[in-house]
Known about the structure:
Layout: E1 5-10, H1 17-30, E2 35-40, H2 45-54, E3 59-61, H3 68-79, E4 84-92, H4 106-112, E5 117-122, H5 129-139, E6 146-154, H6 157-168, E7 173-179, E8 188-189, E9 192-193, H7 202-216, H8 219-226, E10 250-254, E11 259-261, H9 264-272, E12 276-280, E13 294-297, E14 299-300, H10 306-311, H11 313-324, E15 329-332, H12 334-339, E16 340-344, E17 350-352, E18 357-363, E19 369-377, E20 389-396, E21 398-401, E22 411-414, E23 422-424, E24 426-428, E25 431-434, E26 437-438, H13 445-456
Parallel strand pairs: 1-4, 1-5, 2-3, 2-4, 5-6, 6-7, 10-12, 10-13, 13-15, 15-25, 16-18
Antiparallel strand pairs: 8-9, 11-14, 16-17, 18-21, 19-20, 19-22, 20-26, 22-23, 24-25
Helix pairs in contact: 1-2, 1-7, 5-6
Amino acid sequence: MTQPRILIAGTQSGVGKTTLTIGLMAAMKKKGYKVQPYKVGPDYIDPGFHTIATGRVSRNLDSWMIPEERLIEIFLRNSQGADLSIIEGVMGLFDGHRKEEGKGSSADVAKILSTPVILVIDAKKLAQSGAALAYGYQNYNSDLNLIGVILNRVGSASHYQMIKEPIEELGISVLGYIPNQQQLELPERHLGLVPTAETPLLDDYIDELAEVILKYLDLNQLYELATETNDLELGEENLFIDQKSKTDIKLAVARDEAFNFYYEDNLELLESRGVKIEYFSPVNDERLPENIDGLYIGGGFPESFLEELSNNHSMRENIKKMIELGIPTYAECGGLMYLTEKIINFDGKEYEMVKVIPGVTAMQDRLQAMGYVKANVEVDNILLSKGQDIRGHEFHHSKLSDLPKDYEAAYTLTGGKGADGRLEGYVEDDLLATYLHLHFANNPRVVDNFIQKCEEFSGGVIYDEE
Length: 466
């Protein structure tokens, strides 16, 4: 059976695509549909809103980091049991990796997954020119199935008709409009939207969005358009091996208001191989879970919880002792920051951290790194061997400094912001800490290598405070 699906794309960033998509997901759920949400690209924040709106965990679809067959597998696996899959695009419809024919763009994902596209147009300062815009996006790439338009920030019903009629003359369905309502905008800060854990009254906000969508959009027509697609076929390779008895290691994963940037499929790739995941909170818990064989600290916003993290002395000491005992530890972006000597906030105030990485992290006013990168492994580590390659993504405002001259870097990077060949990350024994965000589906051997290192660890050693 063909899985109904739709991709919501924007003409550019800032057209209201995320707000509209969240409301659409919630509205379709209110109508009784089981909605599976997705986000194109390397985004951790938007999927959190999707998850709350639908009650199903949102997944990332990144065609630059994930090969096509694996991307299809992730989509089909997670769409099981859903009546409708809604994919939120990234930036403008065709915006992707400039050197690889738009890989990673919303258009690229739509083509790989044979998904109809609905284009969001900001109509605030438009009239008939909206039709020219729609025509251009429809005809820029003939392989793309752009079948509908939603007009956002419309001033009035007559304004809507002024734009709608010439677009429909092009054979493009106009599914409705959203009035210009600034109170429905989501709050933002230095890395984009404020995460769900820090956004108050979120359920009420999403409910209000859903009511606006139900009032102004033709959702029955949208669902009909979502069925106009083709079957997808799985490749021969299976990412998720589903052998629960393969390993019995226990992995402690930091997950709370400070650390919550994880690709859900990374965690499920580990679980599919038998890994037992136990979550803990560096902010709220006194110590790590007992009898663990590995440690995974993902990204997030530790800079927003520096006082709480610093004041949790028992957790910091417990993590430090376990790493000193040799527990395999993978720390990514915010996790790296947490493991340094201290973090200096935007105001210059210093907060002591775990102190296993001999360096200092300081928040900067300017973005320090952003974009896709290719990483070549500099030294054997818990995920990969020297000389191997992997793709990832960087996006951070902090800067790591004061490392010793003889430290071992994890990767040599190409692409993104900065000179090609720059060093990145920190490796010491079985600790790998890096700003680089990885999707394990890019190179599944990282999952097996991490598990092997955890199995080799003596395991179950917990530091008891005297």
